[in-house]
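From the pipeline queue, job 12 of 40. The input is one protein chain; the requested action is below.

Action: predict structure.
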Amino acid sequence: MVIPVPEAESNIAYYESIYPGEFKMPKQLIHIQPFSLDAEQPDYDLDSEDEVFVNKLKKKMDICPLQFEEMIDRLEKGSGQQPVSLQEAKLLLKEDDELIREVYEYWIKKRKNCRGPSLIPSVKQEKRDGSSTNDPYVAFRRRTEKMQTRKNRKNDEASYEKMLKLRRDLSRAVTILEMIKRREKSKRELLHLTLEIMEKR
């Protein structure tokens, strides 16, 4: 089995565009932004194809990646199984008409090429009407059968005999321990007497 490893490149033309050499040490390394409920981040995230489109669109219009994400996010959340029309998109976005038209056409084209129902990934859940489904990708399923509770043991004749045998064995063990205690005590007394006899000689 061979694991493919990409070759290392030394001369990359786009290195400076990704990592510009104009870095300056900031005065403050930790920045704390004030908490606000108004600045909510969109659920849609740009991919490499979107970045190419936004960079082309920047040459003609004033748009930033965050603004593009918000526009696609509103279009996705405003649509159901069928995408919204251009007139409905203008009511949702409230931007420049030319910008809305460009983004709308790009969104429609990307949504047709998308295999899923939406460009925003979501977790599949079970339907609320209680209908069962055999889809293996559905998360958070409800239990179809009740859990079986643990049954209590019945005090039958066999368990009673086992308890009697256990009690008899424990009583024998206690008797043996008491006899061992007496033996060790007698050995200790014998040792003390032997030492006294040796000292008196």
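Job complete. The CA atoms of residues 90 and 96 lie 9 Å apart.
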